[in-house]
TrEMBL record:
It comes from Luteimonas yindakuii. GO terms for molecular function: phosphoribosylanthranilate isomerase activity. It holds the Pfam family PRAI. GO terms for biological process: L-tryptophan biosynthetic process. Its EC number is 5.3.1.24. It is an enzyme of class 5 (isomerase). Belongs to the TrpF family. This is N-(5'-phosphoribosyl)anthranilate isomerase.
């Protein structure tokens, strides 16, 4: 199967240090995520994220990540951090996600077991009619994201027209295979580029980007050796 848009977008999530934000931009990452979920070890507050936003390179998008936050918390982040995209990982419904006047991604908890069946994209599109896309993550229902586990990729069938991101357990060692197997709009990584929660590793960040670009070149039947 061929895709029309061959460049896989890359989002680095769970950023907690300006230097990591700056390096992400230098590596050509498309977006960085700031997590505001109360139970996340990578959680930052609005002022911390606002300070890190200054380190963003031009055309790198800030994404605000929530999990069952109150509308007041979301609005405060929108006002102070000025994200261009919202990402919801909890039990939020479409009306809530749309109420902030910004595009949003809805994260779908895929669990880690097999035999759960293919994802019903028609049902998702009906339930989250206002979503700009979906992010499929490996955490189970009620669990926090960022567990560093993969899910059964075969549950995502080829031919998906809605933009979607794949997350959960991605590293430089498996993201090439994931990009080729699923042809996602983008990939999202947090723990796979870290030394410890929130502390990114420059070498892992660089290798991750290189492997995604290698997959993009393979999709086009080209060689990446020239850069």
């Amino acid at each position: 199967m061929k895709r029309t848009l061959f460049r896989t977008r890359i989002k680095f999530c769970g950023m907690t240090r300006p230097g990591d934000v700056r390096l992400a931009g230098e590596l050509g990452v498309d977006a960085v995520g700031f997590i505001f979920a109360a139970d996340s070890p990578r959680r930052v507050d609005a002022e911390e994220a606002r300070a890190m936003r200054v380190a963003l390179a031009p055309m790198v998008s800030p994404v605000a990540v929530f999990r069952d936050n109150s509308s007041e918390e979301v609005r405060d982040v929108v006002r102070r951090v000025r994200p261009v995209l919202l990402q919801f990982h909890g039990n939020e419904e479409d009306a809530f996600c749309r109420s902030f006047g910004l595009p949003y991604l809805k994260a779908i908890a895929m669990g880690t077991g097999s035999g759960q069946g293919a994802v019903d994209f028609i049902a998702l599109r009906v339930r989250y009619a206002g979503a700009s896309g979906f992010l499929f993550d490996s955490h189970g229902a009620g669990e926090s994201p960022g567990q560093g586990r993969t899910f059964d990729w075969s549950r995502l069938k080829p031919g998906i027209e809605t933009p979607f991101f794949v997350s959960g357990g991605l590293t430089a060692d498996n993201v090439h295979d994931a990009a080729l197997a699923l042809l996602p709009w983008g990939v999202d990584v947090s723990s796979g580029i870290e030394r410890s929660p929130g502390l990114k590793d420059g070498d892992l960040m660089r290798r991750f980007v290189e492997e995604v670009r290698r997959a993009d070149c393979a999709e086009l039947g080209k060689s990446c050796e020239a850069g």
